Fold:
Amino acid sequence: MTLAVFRRYSVLNTGGSSGVTWGRTRKHLSPQTGRHAPSMTTASDSEAFSPVQGYTRCGRRLYDLKTPSLSTVTPTAMSSFLNFVYSQIFVALPYPKQDLTDQTIIVTGANTGLGLEAARHFTRLNASKVILGVRSLEKGEGAKKSIEESTGRSGVVEAWRLDLCSYESVKQSVQRAHGLQRLDVVVGNAGIAPSTFAMAEDNESMVTVNVISTFLLGLLILPKLRETAAKFNVQPHLTVVSSEVHMMAKFEERKNPDLLKTLNDKNTTDMGDRYQVSKLLQVYCARELAARLNKTGKSDVIVNYLNPGMCHSSLSRDGPFFLEVLKFFLARSTEYGSRALVSAATAGEETQGAYLSDCHVAQWVFLPRRHCCEGFADAENRPAPMVLDEPEMQQRVWDEVSAKLESIRPGIMASV
Structure:
């Protein structure tokens, strides 16, 4: 959830954030244990849909599609809001207990927020090397010291300069990473959400940082992850920290034939929608990358993406007073939200190409109307209805992003 969401949806819609978090410590939950809330919808609940009669069944309620009511107005928005509230209040995230002995892990945007707390968990869980990808080495060294003091482990954490506003910085970091003995996990957590339009490299800054550079890093580092898989007989992870707000993107730019060019147009840009759009683009790219890896038989690396929920973060420092109130009552602590990152980065192959929320493959508790009857019983991940309804858009986004990446680093797509 971000300030951008409130500009459009006010109190109705909320969501998760990437690399930036809000929230308070949930004292009613044990910091050492967690449980998953049971699903409120079953296969039998979602069987009936009759376009002739004009009714749809969601859970055990039957909605009249012809009569305007709260249940038929903006169903996706209402579903997103209900799932958000349910998740924030009732779902407990498990405290990470995995053994990460010998593993090397990179976390971008790790000097603060979710990235810092995830790196702290990775260090505590006996990782051999934890690399903090940060824009400021001074802040990175401060984060390193904090982790060492809290975990009692020294000689594990390293701070590397990685500025996603610079393609050259990304390339240099990847070159350095290829010199590692092994690389088991890359968590693409870094993200920005400025309120004003600005360019970084040759794209609008949120597109550059949250999308282009994130996948430039991911694709350039794939060969190293594959090398680790083959050499050590493990299944490495490329995990992208996305957000539930991708479900709220209007993405009007999709109506134009040249997506990236349109996103770069300051005169037509809706900055209130841009963060949500950047998260949606992440979802498209992560899904397509995973699908292509599966198709080409190169799925030895797990690619997944996650929603950490609403947590504390400086991202919302310019937000309205209502946002502060909502954060006080509903938001997760930074540590609590970081558990979602650790869970995704250590999850099994069933999460390949999947959208994870609350530390498991996401399925709606309160389903958008038009998806109530679409195979809820299976393990299909549930990203935004726009993603499910417009599969051709995923291909369009991938084509443009991959062409962009190829222009930045010729030959990069050969790793897919």
About this structure: Residues 205-232 form the longest helix (28 residues). The CA atoms of residues 79 and 366 lie 5 Å apart. The longest strand covers residues 129-134.
